[in-house]
Amino acid sequence: MGLTPFPYLHGDLLPAVIGQLSTYNGRSWFIQAKALAERTKDVIRKTTQVYISDRTVANAIAERHMEAVKRDVEGHRAQFEQQGTISDLRHEFAHGNKPSWASVITKDSYGHEHLWEAFIASDLTPRLRLEDGFFRTIGQETISGKYGSAVDDTRDVFDRLARILNELEEEIVAYNAGGQG
Which of 60, 98, 108, 161 is the most buried (most CB within 10 A)? Predict the structure, then answer.
């Protein structure tokens, strides 16, 4: 929900604040997807222990489905970190792909040093540029429903986990229906 306009439509938040919240939720997407995959593996292990009394069979079924989570969700999520549209949500400076803002702001293309004092005195700091430029723009886009592929990518992760859990349920039902349980 933090990636869509829904939670922000009924408040009196400024577009810059909405942009900050939307950016945070977008950038934490990777952490949340990983945590959801890990919890799903816990659910798989515990479910098989509850519904299949034979520990060897339960462990074998659990391992197959946990491997599917690893392959189809965690591995797929890792691809988003390296390529695709959701990779734009990663902060390029924090991940070392570009030089720091200090270097960009203090040196021009000819290598001349510039002083920060003029920028700071007139409040032309990176913070102001983020708040009045970047975050306000992101906030306005979020309010209008332009949130890129993040929601679709999230739906894809949910669909993959749902398929794996559905297959687990079917396998447990089939095992127990065969008089094995």
Answer: 161
